[in-house]
Predict the structure of NADH-ubiquinone oxidoreductase chain 3.
Amino acid sequence: MMKYTISVLFILCVLFLPLIGSLTKWYPSQTQTCKMTAFECGFEPLGETRIPFSMRFFVLVVLFLIFDVEVALLLPILTKIINLSWSTNMCVTLMVFLMILLFGLAYEWKEGSLNWVTQS
């Protein structure tokens, strides 16, 4: 009985969620100016509230995350290599992993993604 209950609830959710989502299209959205402005403790906004996001900063942050994850993946591998002997399979895997990341870093460096300030 329990497995049928879960199945029926799942089917009902799958059927009714799109229905509920489509209901939001029928109701007109009411935009109010006070809801569209940024909250600054009751004061009028001093400048433009919707400033464009810097894509150079985004690329730099993504590169930082990639190399941060690289370090997180390399530390356990290096501790395992120190405790055990150097096997050929482990060395080849580590070298391929490092070469892919170093080629990616060289490409980003050559492309200029790591330069925060543009040279004129």
Summary: The mean pLDDT is 78. The radius of gyration is 26 Å.
